[in-house]
């Protein structure tokens, strides 16, 4: 049974550990917050000795750390995301502030159309495509996880239709005209 014995490797009284990640059995990184600074600390001896790797004069708080290896990783906090390619060495962590949420967008062509429409996404993802007439009656539904779709609309009546793209966290709508 694991976890029955724990050893206290304290980093100090005024330092709060927000997240910790072990790269291997000896190399450990921790994202910490003190009352006056954000800190990234590391150990190369399984947590017996800790070294300050990066400190910023910001007490906004860190949320998590994710290291791909001893050199590259990310630390996220309330003010943004920090990226390192040198293990978090002083002065070389890059701030990507504020973090951006990317919402996929799509384009439809040709408009107006009579036989086929093409739907192209700017990024690949899982989407539900719903085409309805102007009164809300659903005429067509499709699940898609590719970057482009071609839909036969030759059997649709002439008029204005609504194309709705539904993803995990968003819904977008566009109008098409069928001649």
What does this molecule look like?
With 179 residues, this protein is mainly β. It has 2 domains: 16-96; 106-178, Sandwich (Immunoglobulin-like). The protein is built from no helices and 15 strands. The protein has strands at residues 16-22, 28-33, 38-43, 51-56, 62-67, 73-77, 80-84, 94-96, 106-109, 116-121, 127-133, 138-144, 148-152, 159-166, 171-178. The strands form 4 sheets. Strands 1-2-3-4 form a 4-stranded antiparallel β-sheet, with no helix packed on it. Strands 5-6-7-8 form a 4-stranded antiparallel β-sheet, with no helix packed on it. A hairpin with a 2-residue loop joins strand 6 and strand 7 (80-84). The N and C termini lie far apart (70 Å).
Quantity of strands, as a count: 15
* Shape annotation: rod-shaped
What's the total helix number?
Answer: 0
Low-confidence residue ranges: 90-100
If strands are numbered along the chain, what order do they take across the biggest sheet? 1-2-3-4
Secondary-structure content class: mainly beta
* Order of helix and strand elements from N to C terminus: EEEEEEEEEEEEEEE
Strand proportion: over 45%
Rounded to the nearest angstrom, the radius of gyration is 26 Å
Kindly report the average pLDDT value: 76
Helix residue percentage: under 10%
Largest sheet features: 4 strands, antiparallel
CA(first)-CA(last) distance: 70 Å
Tell me which oligomeric state these chains represent.
Answer: single chain
Q: Return the domain count.
A: 2
């Amino acid at each position: 049974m694991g976890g029955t014995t724990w050893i206290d490797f304290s980093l100090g009284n005024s330092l709060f550990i927000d997240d910790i990640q072990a790269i291997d059995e000896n190399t450990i990184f921790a994202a910490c917050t003190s009352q006056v600074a954000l800190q990234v600390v590391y150990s190369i001896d399984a947590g017996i000795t800790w070294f300050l790797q990066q400190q910023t004069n910001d007490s906004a708080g860190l949320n998590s750390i994710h290291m791909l290896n001893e050199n590259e990783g990310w630390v996220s906090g309330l003010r943004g995301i920090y990226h390192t390619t040198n293990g978090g060495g002083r002065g070389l962590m890059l701030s990507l502030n504020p973090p951006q949420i990317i919402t996929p967008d799509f384009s439809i062509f040709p408009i107006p159309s009579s036989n086929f429409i093409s739907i192209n996404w700017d990024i690949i993802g899982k989407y539900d495509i719903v085409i309805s007439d102007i009164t809300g009656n659903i005429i067509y539904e499709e699940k898609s996880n590719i970057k482009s779709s071609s839909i036969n609309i030759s059997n649709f009546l002439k008029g204005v239709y609504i194309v709705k793209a539904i993803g995990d966290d968003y819904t977008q709508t566009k109008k098409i005209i069928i001649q």
